[in-house]
Write the structure tokens for this entry.
Amino acid sequence: MSSKSVEFLKQKLTVKNFDKIISLDNEKLNDFLAEYIEILNPKNIFVCDDSKEDADLIKKMALETGEEKILALKNATYHFDGINDQARDPEHTFFLTDSPIDPNIATTDRTAGLKEIREIMKNIMKNSTMIIRFFSLGPLNCDLSMQAVQITDSPYVSHSEDLLYRSGYEQFKKIKNKSRFFRFVHSEGELTESLVSKNLDKRRIYIDLKELMVYSANTQYGGNTLGLKKLAMRLAIKLASEEGWLCEHMFLMGVNGPNARKTYFTGAFPSACGKTSTSMVTGENIVGDDIVYIKERNGKAYSVNVERGMFGIIDGVNQKDDPVIWDVLHSPKEIIFSNILVGPDNMPYWTDSGVSIPDSGKNFSGEWKKGKLDSKGKPIPASHKNARFTLRLDYLKNLDNNLDNPEGVEVGGMIYGGRDADTTVPVEEAFDWTHGIVTKGAGIESETTAAALGKQGVRKFNPMSNIEFLSVSIGKYIKMNIDFAKKLVKVPKIYSVNYFMKDDAGQFMSDKVDKSVWLKWMELRVNNEIEAIKTPTGFIPKYDDLRKLFKQVLGKEYSKELYEKQFSFRCTKWIEKLDRLEKQYKETIPDTPKELYDEYEKQRKRIVELQSKKGDIISPFEL
Ligand code: SPV
Ligand code: MN
């Protein structure tokens, strides 16, 4: 096959592009490119290396095709996805497998799926330019990183990936196992006059685990198209399960402790539940906000940010709560705004920014005026709830200096968050690793949000916030998390946080900025500097420690009353949570590890015992 592939590539590529491919000296790559050039049949082909010149060409293409347009903000552009292409599309995202993975994971027959997607993709690039580009997932020259190649006909996708990922053309030459790399094929398909994907009925995202390859067609939204993001994540989880490491839907950040100490935390939160804003908190250092690889080295857990940029939700970003992002979004930096409102002044606007929004402009629905209705008669918001900003992390003044460290950073703690109005306290430490993984990680339930198509506000179980991206069965995935610590001498501590607890009047009990205090508390705990109170579900802060931290970190008085409200133990609510989770695991996850049921049973016993002694809702002062 290979010499034939080389011949074919020679015919199809310009001398310069051909040389770029041949210099990579990778037969599998040659065969892959030859096969897909034949199927996709592009009008032009452009092979992009690590040079600034090539990256600039992609940006120019995005403007020339009109997929991105300039704003009145220097260096920033905007892009719209179609009105029905605003989020990840779980209904058309499938793993191609011959045998099912798990009742909760959508699969489709591999042979039929491949046939279908190849038909959909046949000649799909006949009027466009194919961009071939290489990336490194994770720092360069790092044993945790993975290499990848992306084919796309969308300069917007390629430009976004340029901001979000480390360019990896030269790294690709250094791959040791020449067949171990990820491959992504994307086409936005035919576009409408407004330059959005037209054939949404043929929108497909197909993941082929056997070949470590992903196909995505007739869509533009980043979560469906940026191969390196959630598509690569699914491939990585599979590979990690075979090789004994972890790929998690987690931020990575350094929390600054006393005497210039820094402790690194990873954090898993379902989409739109405060993950990005936690990783960006004032006074701490962000390494990444979405995806990490974690690996054991010398008995310790090391982690890297797979990305080097952010594809963040812009809805609600305001000057007071998100000062660092706010500054960048208003500075002459290379930023792509997507699905925001473009006002008559050609500036970007979004909901809940603290700035008043113009009554008219352009948005994902076309020309927009306040009161405009969609086809179902519902008002179209000025900016979409899932509108995003795409930018490089090195624009941020709170960026950690270890982002590109090929060693990664040592993980001190892991945090699991959710969106829970009535059960779990703002912050709590697990008793140990296994307890943490099964009750906190595998116990995440969250109200659904706008990051995926479908109904919002429904409580859904979401182990490690990773359920949408799992490529191995949930039981196996939980087990691989449990087992990971067996290799460790120094085991990270595990925490849960919940920013969404409401009081009887339906008001949130904590302030957005309070997360800083919870982080500082966890930092002190990881380093064994303070004591805590034991509850049936873990360790919670002592009032005096929090009072001091609120004063130090936020200059706030923290009252005993608020502490009591926030940290009271709610027996019935917790028993109900355990009931729901146990039912879920028993009924839908046949390979749930025994450790999970054992921990749930012990937890239940502890709660029932406490309830019989002290009643249903117990003040932390009585624990
Ligand atoms: C998320 O929704 O978790 C994101 C954005 O990080 S997406 O790329 O759509 O997955
Ligand atoms: Mn995410």
